[in-house]
From TrEMBL:
<comment type="subunit">
    <text>Homotrimer. Interacts with the C5-epimerase GLCE.</text>
</comment>
<dbReference type="Pfam" id="PF03567">
    <property type="entry name" value="Sulfotransfer_2"/>
</dbReference>
<keyword id="KW-0735">Signal-anchor</keyword>
<dbReference type="InterPro" id="IPR007734">
    <property type="entry name" value="Heparan_SO4_2-O-STrfase"/>
</dbReference>
<keyword id="KW-0808">Transferase</keyword>
<comment type="similarity">
    <text>Belongs to the sulfotransferase 3 family.</text>
</comment>
<keyword id="KW-0812">Transmembrane</keyword>
<keyword id="KW-0333">Golgi apparatus</keyword>
<keyword id="KW-1133">Transmembrane helix</keyword>
<comment type="function">
    <text>Catalyzes the transfer of a sulfo group from 3'-phospho-5'-adenylyl sulfate (PAPS) to the 2-OH position of iduronic acid (IdoA) or glucuronic acid (GlcA) within the heparan sulfate (HS) chain and participates in HS biosynthesis. Required for metanephric development of kidney formation, suggesting that 2-O-sulfation within HS is essential for signaling between ureteric bud and metanephric mesenchyme.</text>
</comment>
<dbReference type="InterPro" id="IPR027417">
    <property type="entry name" value="P-loop_NTPase"/>
</dbReference>
<keyword id="KW-1015">Disulfide bond</keyword>
<dbReference type="GO" id="GO:0004394">
    <property type="term" value="F:heparan sulfate 2-sulfotransferase activity"/>
</dbReference>
<protein>
    <recommendedName>
        <fullName>Heparan sulfate 2-O-sulfotransferase 1</fullName>
    </recommendedName>
</protein>
<keyword id="KW-0472">Membrane</keyword>
<keyword id="KW-0325">Glycoprotein</keyword>
<dbReference type="GO" id="GO:0000139">
    <property type="term" value="C:Golgi membrane"/>
</dbReference>
Length: 321
């Protein structure tokens, strides 16, 4: 197993190799970068929302579709960057031409690039999940891990207490406050975003979801999310739907030893105002996603099909000679 500094040294070496290849190919002129080649996607993935399964599709396709994939590895998975790191991150994303087109992914809350004077902002995408299901999955993940890296020792390994028992005893790992995650991830880097139960944070998260995100899917309908991305952004996602349906990595990461909570446990959590807000945000995202899907696909014999182009241009003046 590599140490932290060894992993970073390997990563720096890989980047130098890529930059060197670009240099050998000849100088890269900014004017030659068309819109698609200058594209950057940020997937600021929420933990335990099938993010690893989706990210592995991006890794599987990157060589074939000719783009770069980069993991944003923050210290202790802290989703909030320092101000100086925000500046560095924005500069990297916008000016690192050797990494374009690029797909960045990591457990980082939304960052507004416009605040830093950036003219062309990256494309944000994300996936969210039913808040209680997400918390249950995370609870057991901390104790038993998953089938992706089964040998890795987890933080709560050895704790055999079920989620039901934790809720009944009022444990901290299953407290309603632990539900507060998807809202702040979409809200961003403002202090109020991380104030548990903040109505302002939820409103800001909704605003960002509609205005700053290209597409937000839900874990429960992940294949439809991938299908829409392939139709809208084929430069990155060409072949993604077929890969998800047939590939071995479709459900790559499954939390082991997970026990579904009882109705009593669910009812107790649903009494919390925090659950009500997180669930309201989830339902809002689900409605938005289903609205987009309804205008992009048609169902036939139980299968979904992407609609062909449904507009054209006419009455074009002045007439050419």
């Amino acid at each position: 197993m590599f140490s932290c500094w060894q992993e970073r040294a390997i990563a720096r070496h890989e980047v130098r190799e890529i930059e060197q290849r670009h240099t050998m190919d000849g100088p890269r002129q900014d004017a030659a970068l068309d819109e698609e080649e200058d594209m950057v996607i940020i997937y600021n993935r929420v933990p335990k929302t099938a993010s690893t399964s989706f990210t592995n599709i991006a890794y599987d396709l990157c060589a074939k579709n000719k783009y770069h994939v980069l993991h944003i590895n923050t210290t202790k998975n802290n989703p909030v960057m320092s101000l100086q790191d925000q500046v560095r991150f924005v500069k990297n994303i916008t000016s690192w031409k050797e990494m374009k087109p690029g797909f960045y992914h990591g457990h980082v809350s939304y960052l507004d690039f416009a605040k830093f004077g950036v003219k062309k902002k990256p494309i944000y995408i994300n996936v969210i999940r039913d808040p209680i299901e997400r918390l249950v999955s995370y609870y057991y993940f901390l104790r038993f891990g998953d089938d992706y890296r089964p040998g890795l020792r987890r933080r709560k390994q050895g704790d055999k207490k079920t989620f039901d028992e934790c809720v009944a005893e009022g444990g901290s790992d299953c407290a309603p406050e632990k539900l507060w995650l998807q809202i702040p991830f979409f809200c961003g880097h403002s202090s109020e975003c991380w104030n548990v139960g903040s109505r302002w944070a939820m409103d800001q998260a909704k605003y960002n979801l509609v205005n700053e995100y290209f597409l937000v899917g839900v874990t429960e309908e992940l294949e439809d999310f991938i299908m829409l991305l392939e139709a809208a952004l084929p430069r990155f996602f060409r072949g993604a739907t077929e890969l998800y349906r047939t590939g071995k990595k479709s459900h790559l990461r499954k939390t082991t030893e997970k026990k579904l909570p009882t109705k009593q446990t669910i009812a107790k959590l649903q009494q919390s105002d925090i659950w009500k807000m997180e669930n309201e945000f989830y339902e809002f995202a689900l409605e938005q996603f289903q609205f987009i899907r309804a205008h992009a696909v048609r169902e036939k014999d139980g299968d979904l099909y992407i609609l062909a182009q449904n507009f054209f241009y006419e009455k074009i003046y002045p007439k050419s000679n």
